[in-house]
Design goal:
With about 350 residues, the protein is α/β, with parallel strands linked by helices. Helices cover about 35% and strands about 25% of the residues.
């Protein structure tokens, strides 16, 4: 045994001499943990099983107008004060950030010309930022695609670039504890061969999903409609948002396949009020009596759609519900999440 241990120690020393000190470590002597950051939104913290991982790649995919960008912006500030926003769709504005309750001073913005230039910026700036966001990966074009005409085929060019670059992003993100959040679309699965095949796929190749540590998928379930006076169920309706199902389809740092439904409002995103309402219902703090929402035996409003506006106008009730939610699902210390 002593001879075997000596040969292992010699191998360790050789690797450290060739590469770097600490290239190989013993996990009992040097335990490794992934730091998780709570978003202070109980539903998101529950579906991710304890918050967002630092120094990892997070994939957020979803249908159009499901609130991918809004959710990302509203949770990014919890991961750090220096945020780089790669805006391939060229849609981000300071007004939009302020409407979502974010601080524009924390966001630096760039519009990549190609997938390759985007990757070069990310690789060079990972050491300088806490969070890097790519919105969205599907809207970037490779350099080869730009050079060819519309008639020429460019199948899988972007996917090939990402396959080679994603491992580099992940290595650097882990080294500098920078979180990379990549947004993607979901599309109908046109190659569905049987009833067990998935209904939707995430475009851009399999490498994006394989390299992510956490994948959240967003799907619209029902519309939030009101008339001009704010009443539900009348004619001449205006769509103000959607109920959105958020499902964790991959989680390397926690439990997977958790799902929540949260109200998404255009122009406001996923508000604290909507998140608390969803969490309170799931935990039994709020009860349903038919279509009526009841709290401690008292009927509050008819329908969950009317509860969120009520919480906007009643901060005392919001604080009370938040305290009860936290008592039923207490915030854990980071080190306790790994026991």
């Amino acid at each position: 045994m002593a001879k075997e241990k000596k040969s292992v120690d010699t191998a360790f020393e050789k690797v450290e001499f060739l590469y770097a000190r600490g290239a190989i470590v013993n996990l009992q002597k040097n335990p490794r943990y992934t730091e998780k950051v709570l978003t202070e939104r109980p539903s998101i913290d529950w579906v991710t099983d304890g918050g967002l991982p630092k120094g990892r790649l997070i994939l957020i995919a979803g249908e159009p107008s499901a609130g991918k960008s809004s959710l990302t912006i509203q949770i990014a500030e919890k991961l750090g004060d220096r945020i780089l926003y790669g805006d391939t769709e060229a849609t981000l504005t300071s007004d939009y950030l302020e409407d979502l309750g974010a601080d524009p001073a924390k966001f630096d913005h760039f519009i990549p010309e190609t997938t390759e230039s985007m990757s070069n910026v990310i690789r060079s700036q990972i050491p300088n930022y806490d969070v890097i966001i790519i919105d969205s990966i599907n809207n970037s074009a490779s350099g080869e695609q730009l050079q060819k005409t519309a008639e020429e085929k460019t199948m899988a060019n972007r996917a090939n670039v990402l396959s080679s670059q994603l491992p580099i992003w992940i290595s650097l993100a882990n080294q500098y504890n920078t979180t990379i959040i990549v947004l993607s679309q979901v599309r109908d699965n046109m190659n569905k061969t049987n009833k067990y095949s998935p209904d939707t796929v995430i475009p851009g190749g399999n490498s994006l999903h394989h390299n992510s540590s956490l994948t959240l998928e967003l799907f619209k379930s029902s519309k939030k409609e009101k008339d001009e006076k704010g009443n539900l169920g009348n004619k001449d309706k205006i769509v103000e948002g959607n109920m959105v199902r958020i499902k964790c389809t991959k989680n390397k740092v926690g439990k997977v396949n958790r799902e929540v439904a949260i109200e998404f409002t255009y122009g406001k995103g996923y508000t604290i009020e909507a998140d608390i309402a969803s969490a309170a219902k799931r935990l039994g703090v709020l009860e349903m009596a038919g279509s009526w929402v009841k709290y401690k035996g008292t009927s509050l409003v008819q329908g969950m759609d009317n509860l969120v506006p009520m919480l906007f106008d009643n901060p005392e009730l919001l604080d009370e519900l938040k305290k009860e939610v936290e008592e039923k699902w207490p915030k854990k210390k980071i080190k306790d999440l790994f026991k």
